[in-house]
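Throughout our pipeline, every protein is held as a single compact record rather than as scattered files. The remainder of this section carries one protein's record, kept here as part of the documentation.

===
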Amino acid sequence: MQQNPIDMSHLEALLDFYSSAGVDCFMGDKPLDWYELTNKQAEQFRQKKTVAGPPSVAPTLVAPERPRDARPAQPPASPAAPAATRGEQPSAVLPDAQIIAAARDIAASATSLEELRACLEAFDGCNLKLTAKTLVFADGHPEARLMFVGEAPGRDEDLQGKPFVGRSGQLLDRMLDAIGMERSSTYIANVVPWRPPGNRTPTPQETEICKPFIKRQIELVNPDVLVFLGAASAKTLLGVQEGIRKMRGRWMAYPGSGKEIAAIATYHPAYLLRSPLEKRLSWRDFLAISQSLKK
């Protein structure tokens, strides 16, 4: 029986699908269940804590006070940091209330964006750091009037260490250019600064652990206009429950540093790539953003 020749266009489409889904390398013949692996690592970490006794982490939960004229203190160590100081790979941690409280105190201790980045680089309380290649902190001008916040980085962002640099980032750049703005004049970040394996959605625990850092990031930038790219970031930071179709285009207030920041949600550029007809609504949102910055 004669076999049909390989259709290269179908093969290219399949590879493109895998790339869009977050598959960036071939690891073996069998798939790897990242959820199961993380659970096993967390269980091993819990058993290790049970045998060794409760670790003394209380001193790391409160940021040390220092005089105003003193040099910036080193970022406080996160609860899982002792393993890293011994030159070992940090172990997975159980995302509990103690870790979330530590994240809040560590983020609050940062007095500048540079300190906040250093805090995140030293923080081992989020298991996504174990599988991500790089920390995707931010891109753009630290004193920008316009700030964008997405949900989490993807493959291209993980490789380059900058948010929104893939196809969706290129579309965002074109949308900014359409209203006479450049990427370098804005500030771009994500709620979660590490890429989830396979571009999966971050779990509620992962989002809750990372939330104090993005909130502090917004406080330090203190923009005039805050744009949520997609519903996920708006729901996390504003506490709203509406879908993006009802939420987009409506101005809201975000509590900033000494002022209320004008906030608006719009479609994520990745969604617009899949649904190009919705670009007309995002165009209206960007026109409203441009008008708001002119006030």
